[in-house]
Amino acid sequence: MDYTERERLKKEILPYIKEHLKPSRLEHTLNVTKLAIEMAEQFGADKNKAEIAALLHDMAKYEKRPGVDMNLAHSKIGAEMSKEIFGIEDEEILNAIANHTTGRAGMSTLEKIIFLADAIEPGRHYPGVEEIRRMAETDLDKACIMSLQHTINYVKEHEGWYLHPDSIEAKKYLEEHEWNQKN
After folding, report:
1. What integer pLDDT is reported at residue 70 of this predicted model?
2. 50: domain CATH number?
3. What's the number of domains the chain is made of?
């Protein structure tokens, strides 16, 4: 994605998210975007793609779909809406949007960045977030493992909550990948 394409998309996306997101969610989205750009620069990902994916990551957060738990589904639906509304075809951007809530096995660097930026942006406050933030400064994989473990523990503490299998598979994949790199 080049600068011109990014600027065109931003001119379309910003008014859309300002209209469709609650003020607190808009602030979250802008925090995620700022952090994602910084992380992309640090870890060698395309910062233009990071900016667009971050701006769109929660675009479907308040969509209403009968019988659908939007807490998890908003990411997949957001990726589809990004295609339909903004004509985004870039699979790396779409995957980063689609997998930002659960992660997945084999995430790209951009996917890890959006996943983590969503979890650790400055407005997030939960036990362990500071440790994940520190790890994210140097090691995306370890930070993702820590964030995924936090999510797994959190969901297990709440009876009846659904733990998406992609989160378990993502953690397993990253742990195996980390082990293989050491050996």
Report:
1. 84
2. 1.10.3210.10
3. 1
Q: What's the chain's average pLDDT?
A: 95
* CA dist list (Å): 157 to 69, 147, 152, 161, 163: 19, 15, 9, 9, 11
pTM over 0.90: yes
Residue whose C-alpha is closest to residue 60's, from 44, 71, 45, 46: 71
3-state SS of the chain is CCHHHHHHHHHHHHHHHHHHCCHHHHHHHHHHHHHHHHHHHHHCCCHHHHHHHHHHCCCCCCCCCCCCCHHHHHHHHHHHHHHHHHCCCCHHHHHHHHCCCCCCCCCCHHHHHHHHHHHHCCCCCCCCHHHHHHHHCCCHHHHHHHHHHHHHHHHHCCCCCCCCHHHHHHHHHHHHHHHHHHC
Mean pLDDT along residues 27-39: 98
**Do the Cβ atoms of 39 and 117 come closer than 8 Å?**
yes
- Angle ∠(122,124,125) on CA atoms, nearest 5: 115
Cα separation, 110 vs 156, in Å, equals 28
